[in-house]
Amino acid sequence: MGKLIGNKIKSAVFISGNGSNLNSIIKNSKKKNFPIKISLVISNKSSAKGIRYAKKNNIPYKIFNSLNMQEFERKALKELKIKKIKFICLAGFMKILSKKFIKKFNNKIVNMHPSLLPKYKGLNTHLKVIENKEKISGCTVHYVSSKLDSGKIILQKKIKVKKNDTMVSLKKRILKQEHLLYPKAIKNIFLN
Fold first, then answer.
1. What is the pTM of this model?
2. Residue range 128-150, pLDDT digits in tens
3. What domains appear along the chain, each with residue ranges and CATH number?
């Protein structure tokens, strides 16, 4: 992405749920040396608890509670254009963006996934890890491509799966790592 000079990159975060990764990105974006500024939060669910972080930090947010993905994308693109957004972080965004949408933001959309890709793409990653008696799991920040969870990997963090781990305990431990890894990956993109 090249060196960052002067102003921070205007960015948006897409969420569907609790927004803990959004909160981590917002906290980091307040640091002087962090390359992006969160200028917009977009959710596809009015019930997304993560909206509270946008409110708390006075970040404009939009909720497009549409089941129709084309309509969601049309509204989102309009808003992204108005706010002059150059970079998008997906943080627990539970919808699949169209090829057309991804193409408009070519290599400017990143996602956090709660497994060590290419293993366990899609949903229920922690369940699959436990069922398959994996010794190691973790999380991955990757570029978004038109294939689900298949874009170029930016950074990964491994953690050991404990013998007594449940889906809940594993998820909790991986989530802690996500909060550290996502900001680190964003810095890697812009500051390398």
1. 0.94
2. 999 999 999 999 999 999 999 99
3. 9-191 (3.40.50.170)
